[in-house]
Amino acid sequence: MVYQGKSVAVRALDNGVAELCFDAQGESVNKFDVATVNELSEAISALEAMPDLRGVLATSGKSVFIVGADITEFGGVFGAGPDAVIAHLSKNNENNNRLEDLKVPVVVAINGFALGGGLEFCLACDYRIASSAAKIGLPETKLGLIPGWGGTVRLPRIAGVDTAAEWIATGKDQRADAALTAGVVDAVVEPELLREAGLHALEQCMNGSFDIRTRRARKTGAMLLNDTEALMAFETAKSFIGAQAGRNYPAPVAAVKAMQKAAKADRAGALAAEAEAFAKLAQGSAAQALVGLFLSDQLIAKKAKQWEKKADKKIARASVLGAGIMGGGIAYQSALKGTPIKMKDIAQAGIDLGLSEASKLLTKQVERGRMKPAQMAEVLTRIEPCLSYQGFDAVDMVVEAVVENPKVKHAVLAEVEQSLGDDAVIASNTSTISISYLAQALKRPENFCGMHFFNPVHAMPLVEVIRGEKTSDKAIARTVAYANAMGKKAVVVNDCPGFLVNRVLFPYFAGFSMLLRDGADFQQVDRVMQAWGWPMGPAYLLDVVGIDTAAHCEAVMAEGFPTRMGKTFKACTDVMYEAGRYGQKNSLGFYRYEADKKGKPAKLVDDKTYQLLKPHCAETKEFSDEEIIARMMVPMVTEMARCLEEGVVETAAEADMSLIYGLGFPPFRGGVFRWVDSLGVEAVVAMAKQYQALGELYQPTDGMLALAKANKTYYA
């Protein structure tokens, strides 16, 4: 052994070849944390000191190559300022430069994921041989950043500006065959042949058959573009990427600008331009929010895995009660991810609708080339439609998804329990009704919890798993395990009206209703909130959710929290509901809907809406964007703070991720609590106090006041 660290080793092979192997002890993957970067520097020093070295083969001892930087280290580095960020980048840039400048050729064998810094290491090598199972990419823009270890420098010089701009701007993983076509890797072989192919390529380099000098010169010099070519390539890329990314996500365009600035520079100048752009982005709010989201996502995944480990058995067979759109979506998702499921309804029409929903979703997968017809047929065979409870004694998990009516749910839950084994878990897909109340219909309430999916099931990542007063840990563990198996993001919350997501959504809608009452134009409110970052404004969102559904939920929330969510005026949703305008489901809501050329509902302005609202609203007047944002967001903030203080949700991270995955809260703002932290809790308290005459929803909580007084934040 020439060098042995905890993550990096160098061993001598035959014929003057050394193997540089990444294999982090006690870890499932390799990543570039500070310790690994330091060890790599020592390993390269060991290689430089080997007297008879002729070539280096870089490998991984894991099932993946290197997944990138250790993002948990970013917070402290970013907080120390731009100079600290550049210093952090410089160490591994020095490593990659030294590797690229070795007097002998370096070939890398990419056996799995090589992402971010992992791919940047590979780009510094002379030749790249990939397993057919490998995936590579530069995902930094998803974190609001750009590559910082030479990605914007080497990739455009290897594969061209167009490929580099697309790969970096989208941040997508690339399959090995696509990487070969793009010229980013030099060969693709089957996994079992990878090491042999790497050694063969290295031998070709060592005997002079492969020209590494020309390759190195191209990577370390200016780009091979004249002024006209460079202008066209970069300006076109900036225009297209800027339009796609939008103003709230500056990183993709910043990456193109860094490449453009460095086009005529040598390696040192290009890396300096990249580091400067990276450091600037690292100080921005988007990067801080998106890095925070990444870490929060890891937290909820870790907690879900911990629950799964507590599950006493795997969900081998599930069932859903109530077919239709929601039941069909649940059945589709379960079957797609490999868990067979019974889909039960009281009428054949419901069964037909559920099967139609599952078939429609699968057909789209086939049409988009993501699935073969035979695979579609296999998934459909995992869905067993039925009109009775026959065979339910063999089911491990039941998801009740019948109409949102307490009496109906009570009857169905009591009925299905009689057909199940004593050990089976039942979960209700209710969106607002108390789990503890629904459990009153059951003989075994300890086996009952909530499992709230969001519509459309296949597209929305979140599942709220709701604990009732008598719910056991076993029921929660099995339900979270089932959500994990379905590919969902499970967050465990405690029972209350609306649970977490709907409990904080309806104060947001209440803010909207009060704005319209006071003379705001719903179209202006929609424009402002969409510009703020929401996928759609509140009026449009109500149309998509269904105004009849919203009216029902508002009644539940008003009963649960009468002093905050009870109405003292006729709300805009009540006006629409009483007029029979339910939104997209009947083509009339705040807007009017007509099918476009693709059959999708196109949103149109309808003067009738203004006529209906006029008797119940003040005379229309202009509100500033700032006032609209404050009046919309403060109720959501205060209610979210109450949920955290009451223990409805355990952590600020889980609360934020629930809104991002369940509602589409703007990711670049990082979630409600990260947004509050970015403004300062004291500033948000002051914002709320401006409007506290509007009611309890605008009054800061005791917890908010305490944080503001102590000058603290929700995220330490």
Automatic annotation (TrEMBL):
UniProt domain 3-hydroxyacyl-CoA dehydrogenase C-terminal: residue ranges: 498-593, 628-701
UniProt protein name: enoyl-CoA hydratase
Family assignment from sequence similarity: In the central section; belongs to the 3-hydroxyacyl-CoA dehydrogenase family. In the N-terminal section; belongs to the enoyl-CoA hydratase/isomerase family.
Pathway note: Lipid metabolism; fatty acid beta-oxidation
Enzyme Commission no: 4.2.1.17
Reaction equation(s) it catalyzes: a (3S)-3-hydroxyacyl-CoA + NAD(+) = a 3-oxoacyl-CoA + NADH + H(+)
Presence of keyword DNA repair: no
